[in-house]
């Protein structure tokens, strides 16, 4: 190798998000842009009024026709302005601007703006926003339904979602930062936080990661949740996905950051800890004793869903000596006619349950419910009678599937469905030792996992007794005078406890 060979000088790349300097004729480029527009059948361009003073152009599929005819065309016909500046003064619409920048004109046209120019102009355009506001009505939450409490859910409109949060937090400290992501989609993403409470390190980390996204199309908030996660290879969700504006408003007051995406009916909440995925917002609407009991039931249900089938396979395969004598005849009678080993029997049942789940989720609601109930009963009964599976394992798998539905956050239920299979394989290979090794592997993974740089297992690791007041159990509101330590809020105190008077004796 020739170490003295002169190296070529490296030309630094152009910085991102900056346009390449224009070197062509502006008039020619303007004509090329309009040729692209006119190639689409939904683009209209005509002279108005009949004398041809102005040229009006727009995409008819993304603008409001009533607004165009009543507030633009009618005003131009009555007022008869002679310049774009005069037209801007007489048209009763906000946020209009005059521009010659082709990029600005293109973005405005594709966002539902009407382009008005003089018939013999030089590319100078008046951009009038007239976007069509077609949107879905606010409905009841589907994945986070609650018996008590508000019945409003986010919709696909970013403005509507922000409105649902702002009416619950009518304070000027509620700040919003908007970033457009996606080279093609140019999706509007809003980052909400309460100034003076939220830690600016968390806010800046979210803004930086979203602004650095380099992808062509962002169709939903789930795209962003996967791309800005601390560990993109983890099966555990690192952001809480919610469709409830009341939950989003509540966590904002704690110091969290909420991410809204235009076109998505779900909001992202971060930083998140694993205990919050088993906490339903309905817990705060019930008595704290009942809410704490429900949370413990969910945690037990999750452990049962993950461990029950694998423990059965491990005990039947390697540790049958540990089975009580009273239970042993029942298991022998149950497995007497089954020709398969326990692992194959378990995989058959688990696969059947997953097939029923997917079929029920993809079919229409009424048909899916029928398939789930009838299919489960018919297939389970036929499998036991045919001798393919034992009735004891069928009961365990059915209970484990039912227990996995107790989680209030849909993303964590998918994780539970996935991690049951590694436990099954480990139980078949090494018995209870394999189950312990698999559990240690997942525990070590959770110990290293973070959400926006904050520990995922908090308040268990690191141990913070203060945050235990609202994690796996919920204590009364009067005991929660401080915000979670894990968020590092700028204002830690939620309220100043009042000094209660001493209770009087019964005979005073």
From TrEMBL:
Its main location: membrane. It comes from the Bacteria. GO terms for biological process: spore germination. InterPro entries: Spore_Ger (IPR004995), UPF0353/GerABKA_families (IPR050768). PANTHER family: LEUCINE ZIPPER PROTEIN 4, SPORE GERMINATION PROTEIN. It is found in: Cell membrane; Membrane. Keywords: Membrane, Transmembrane, Transmembrane helix. Residues 488-508 have a biased composition (Basic and acidic residues). Residues 482-508 are annotated as: Disordered. GO terms for cellular component: plasma membrane. The chain crosses the membrane at residues 296-318, 368-386, 392-411, 423-447. Signal peptide: none annotated. It is a multi-pass membrane protein. This is Spore germination protein. The lineage of its organism: Bacteria, Bacillati, Bacillota, Bacilli, Bacillales. Belongs to the GerABKA family.
